[in-house]
Specification:
- The complex is a heterodimer of chains A (178) and B (155).
- By secondary structure, chain A is an alpha+beta fold.
- Chain A has one domain (36-168): Muramoyl-pentapeptide Carboxypeptidase, domain 2, CATH 3.30.1380.20.
- Chain A has 5 helices and 5 strands, in the order H-E-H-H-H-E-E-H-E-E.
- Chain A has a 4-stranded antiparallel β-sheet, covered by helices on one side.
- The longest helix of chain A has 27 residues, at 36-62.
- With 155 residues, chain B is of the alpha+beta class.
- Chain B has one domain (2-153): Trafficking protein particle complex subunit 3 (Muramoyl-pentapeptide Carboxypeptidase, domain 2).
- Chain B has 5 helices and 7 strands.
- Chain B has a 4-stranded antiparallel β-sheet with strand order 4-5-7-6, with helices on one face. Chain B has a two-stranded antiparallel ribbon with strand order 2-3.
- The longest helix of chain B is centred in the N-terminal third of the chain and has 18 residues, at 31-48.
- Classes of the chains: A alpha+beta (178), B alpha+beta (155).
- Chain B: It comes from Tetranychus urticae.
- Chain B: Its main location: Golgi.
- Chain B: It is found in: Golgi apparatus, cis-Golgi network.
- Chain B: This is Trafficking protein particle complex subunit 6B.
Chain lengths: 178, 155
């Protein structure tokens, strides 16, 4: 077990490297697109593409069985945050039908060095995260929506990521597979 | 700490998003990707050299890039560093991570150069912050082995 932990650690990189790379990407997109709304869309799309692949890695590493309900999904997302970003967001604000919840991020490794200037108030800087969640859930046949309710960068008290269950994607399954 | 898988996937998306066909169809325009690497390297080296001693000379800096800087990014050092002592350095990485998952069959070799641009930018940015104006080019030798050539311009 001890050896395994060490092995896992050697797969870690400094969060500086990741957040600086991400920051440079956002900066380049702002130069290319100018309109913050377009940048938000691009970041979400990039996150979605990452999510499509990241879920494979998550399933392979954790041996996760099928989720029973959306609460189960929420727990898995929480543990994915811990695994990949080294933070543990808290799960709160469940809706009445248990199909919508919030993740509160106490720290956001992506935005460690970031302050938003006034002309970019509409930029959702960390919009890659909801994209990743949407992409990875889609690969396990869950259509979900994810968006930022609050963002520390915009002067809110915390960073709140809202995730909503839309529907189970059964029709898109290829024939002959369970 | 962050899982390196995330960086690998982000890098794939950087390549997919920022590399565009240039006017000359056979070549790709990697300038933007290189610039993203540059600004990342420029900032990153500042974080890494925070507690390091003052560098003796140019060679000392190149050794730092090959060992410490490379380790922070790729969890390994450059395997071989050669120089002509006149401002040209050749860095050899026998297992370059960003192409280590790409099949080495002939069909994909053409696609590989665009996976080096970001890292060329990283080196150029790091050197830039340390006061050297450099030209960095990369080429795939025999996948996943890569060679980066650094030419330092004396001004």
């Amino acid at each position: 077990m001890a050896k395994q932990v060490k092995n896992l650690d050697s797969k870690k990189i400094s969060s500086d490297l990741f957040s600086l790379t991400y920051g440079s990407l956002v900066f380049q997109l702002i130069k290319d697109y100018e309109n913050p709304e377009d940048v938000n869309k691009q970041l979400e799309r990039i996150g979605y593409n990452i999510g499509l692949r990241l879920i494979e890695d998550f399933l392979a590493k954790t041996n996760t069985p099928r989720c029973f309900d959306f609460k189960d999904v929420a727990d898995k997302i929480q543990s994915a945050f811990r695994m990949y970003l080294g933070i543990t967001p808290s799960i709160t604000n469940w809706s009445q039908g248990n199909d919508e919840f919030s993740l509160i991020l106490d720290a956001n490794p992506l935005a460690e060095f970031i302050e938003l200037p006034d002309h970019l108030v509409n930029l959702r800087y960390s919009n890659i995260l909801p994209g990743i969640i949407r992409g990875s859930l889609e690969m396990v046949q869950i259509e979900a929506k994810a968006w930022f309710m609050q963002d520390y960068l915009k002067g809110d008290a915390t960073t709140e990521l809202r995730i909503k269950f839309v529907k189970k994607l059964e029709d898109v399954m290829p024939q002959g597979e369970d | 700490m962050i899982d390196e898988v995330l960086l690998d996937l982000l890098h794939i998306e950087l390549v997919n998003t920022l590399v565009t066909p240039s006017s000359n169809k056979s070549e790709l325009n990697v300038t933007e990707l290189e610039n993203v690497g540059h600004s990342t390297g420029y900032r990153l080296i500042e974080r890494i050299t925070k507690d390091s001693h003052r560098f003796k000379d140019e060679l000392d800096i190149m050794k730092f890039i090959c060992k410490d800087f490379w380790s922070v990014i790729f969890k390994k050092q450059i395997d071989n560093l050669r120089t002509n002592h006149q401002g040209i350095y050749v860095l050899l990485d026998h297992r370059f991570r960003f192409i280590s998952n790409i099949s080495s069959s002939k069909q994909f070799i053409e696609l590989m150069p665009k996976y080096l641009a970001f890292s060329c930018g990283l080196i150029r940015g790091a050197l830039g912050n340390l006061g050297f104006n450099a030209i960095v080019t990369g080429e795939v030798v025999k996948p996943p082995s890569c060679r980066f050539q650094v030419q330092i311009n004396k001004t």
